[in-house]
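User: Hi! I'm working on a homework problem where we have to compare a predicted structure to a textbook description. Could you give me the structure for the chain below?
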Amino acid sequence: MTGTAAAVWQISAGPAARSYADVFLKHGVALIGPGDAGPWTPERGDEVFEGSFVRRFARDIADGDIVLLRTGLARIAAVGIVVGGYEYANAFDDVNGWDLQHARRVRWARLPSEHEFSSTVFGADPPRCSRVWHPDAVDYAKRFVNSPPTHWQSALLPGLPRTPQNCRFVIEAKRLGAGVEAALEQAQGYVAALGGACDVIVTDGIRYRLYDGRRSFAPVAYANLARLKQSADKCFARLRRP
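Assistant: Happy to help. Predicted structure tokens:
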């Protein structure tokens, strides 16, 4: 159970036409932008981040606080509990067109159906993220996390996308007609920077050559979309492999 001292926050899931609520729920995160300016640090002023929202998100939200995932002026889709501290996650540099790299890990419980409060508990014009003080919203949040079932509060957090351990391919693309084989060395450098082992694909958009990252980057498959041959199946099959 979450302690009675836990603060309650609301965070927007974006406009209805470009909602990213499913991203929050799938990856166990709460995200906020603008993120392209880089990580927040105490030395960086609010003007870098177009206001104080990022600072409050990074500094003031605490481990164990409660978060309401807001999908409308007074409507929420999930209740969550914050896990750990602020992170800058470049994996979220493009979420439906938004740069949302400022992240907090959250264990979310999706509601069976969205809950709408009977009044404007988040204010008439809710900001992207803010502390919730309205007694109706605070009471709802705390009753929810302190009522069964509570198994979601100790569930494992899902992995973040585009982390090195999840990388299957590094793709190096060259201009049409370029010699793709010469691009292997550059792609190998990207694999080394990831710190893992994964396959490499070099392509000019028509020709695709695949190298096995676990066999010293030996060439293992090739496809030419303009001159398709039966042997190209091996390349396509490898790309589809889970």
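For your comparison, note the following. The first strand starts at residue 8 and ends at 12. Residues 165 and 196 are 7 Å apart (CA to CA). Good luck with the assignment!
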